[in-house]
């Protein structure tokens, strides 16, 4: 049995300065500098929230110092490879997945007004498009699944989005054998709020049972 813990929080609505008074001590100099480079306050708040939340979660799973390294295409990992994690955030929500040793990816999307039909033609397989009836929830469910898989593989947008897809019902990868082995992947998707859709992907040995444990968290209170 492989456990995957999915923790999510809603982003606080207080301003950036007020947020830093609560969580600024959790962030290192590099993270603070990156947050400050964002032009819009909402983006500074989102970045600071996501990284402070990550730093409150990971000590639950390891006693080692939180030393991060970047993999080949920029995916962050802990030096302590006995704990694997992935972080995703969008307007209003942060999601962190944690597991042991396995390749893991998570994604959260906010459903908003876009040219969904035009975007679908660029990112979905013909089979996916043929089953889509224009439902925004379907669109963002599948988009989150695709992003979680890409992030789990750690290859970024170098993957051809139209080379793989997901069948309806229980999420299951569909692709050519030379692209990947679907038997090695398991997925889950869920709706943390009425306007957000989330997904997670994990690579495990074929037939390994996976238990998805989803938890809504409260953001750290003031010191």
Structure description:
The chain is of the alpha+beta class and 223 residues long. It has one domain (2-216): Alpha-Beta Complex (Ribosomal Protein L22, Chain A). It is 30% helix and 30% strand. The protein has six helices and eleven strands. The chain has helices spanning 16-23, 29-37, 41-57, 116-123, 126-131, 136-153, and strands spanning 2-10, 68-70, 76-78, 84-90, 93-99, 104-110, 164-166, 173-175, 185-193, 196-203, 210-216. The strands form four sheets. The protein has a four-stranded mixed β-sheet with strand order 4-5-1-11, covered by helices on one side. The longest helix has 18 residues, at 136-153. 33% of the residues are buried. The mean pLDDT is 90.
In terms of topology, how is this protein built?
Blueprint: E1 2-10, H1 16-23, H2 29-37, H3 41-57, E2 68-70, E3 76-78, E4 84-90, E5 93-99, E6 104-110, H4 116-123, H5 126-131, H6 136-153, E7 164-166, E8 173-175, E9 185-193, E10 196-203, E11 210-216
Helix pairs in contact: 1-3, 2-3
TL;DR?
With 223 residues, the protein is an alpha+beta fold. The protein has helices at residues 16-23, 29-37, 41-57, 116-123, 126-131, 136-153; strands at 2-10, 68-70, 76-78, 84-90, 93-99, 104-110, 164-166, 173-175, 185-193, 196-203, 210-216.
Top keywords for this entry?
30% helix, 6 helices, single chain, three-stranded antiparallel β-sheet, Ribosomal Protein L22, Chain A, 223 residues, alpha+beta, globular, 11 strands, 30% strand
What do we call the CATH homologous superfamily? Answer: 4'-phosphopantetheinyl transferase domain
Q: How much β-strand is present in the residues?
A: 25-35%
The end-to-end distance, rounded to whole angstroms, is 38 Å
- CATH class term: Alpha Beta
Major β-sheet annotation: 4 strands, mixed
The residue fraction in helices comes out at 25-40%
At CATH's second level, what is the architecture?
A: Alpha-Beta Complex
Number of helices: 6
The stretches of 5 or more residues where confidence is low (pLDDT under 50) are none
Could you tell me the mean pLDDT? Answer: 90
What gyration radius follows from the Cα positions, in whole Å? Answer: 18 Å
Number of domains: 1
Order of helices and strands: EHHHEEEEEHHHEEEEE
Structural class, please? alpha+beta
């Amino acid at each position: 049995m492989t456990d995957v813990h999915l923790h999510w929080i809603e982003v606080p609505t207080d301003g950036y300065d007020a947020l830093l008074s609560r969580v600024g001590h959790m962030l290192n100099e590099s993270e603070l500098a990156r947050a400050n480079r964002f032009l819009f306050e909402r983006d500074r708040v989102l970045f600071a929230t996501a990284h402070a939340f990550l730093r409150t979660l990971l000590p639950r799973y390891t006693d080692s110092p939180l030393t991060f390294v970047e993999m080949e295409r920029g995916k962050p990992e802990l030096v302590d490879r006995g704990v694997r994690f992935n972080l995703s955030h969008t307007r209003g929500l942060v999601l962190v997945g944690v597991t042991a040793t396995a390749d893991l990816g998570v994604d959260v999307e906010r459903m908003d007004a876009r040219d969904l039909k035009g975007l679908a033609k660029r990112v979905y397989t013909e089979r996916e498009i043929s089953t889509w009836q224009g439902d925004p929830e379907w669109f963002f469910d599948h988009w989150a699944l695709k992003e979680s898989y890409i992030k789990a593989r750690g290859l970024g947008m170098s993957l051809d989005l139209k080379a793989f897809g997901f069948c309806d019902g229980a999420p299951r990868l569909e692709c050519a054998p030379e692209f990947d082995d679907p038997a090695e992947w398991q997925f889950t998707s869920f709706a943390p709020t009425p306007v957000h859709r989330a997904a997670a992907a994990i690579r495990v040995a074929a037939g390994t049972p996976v238990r998805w444990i989803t938890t809504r968290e409260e953001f750290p209170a003031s010191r």
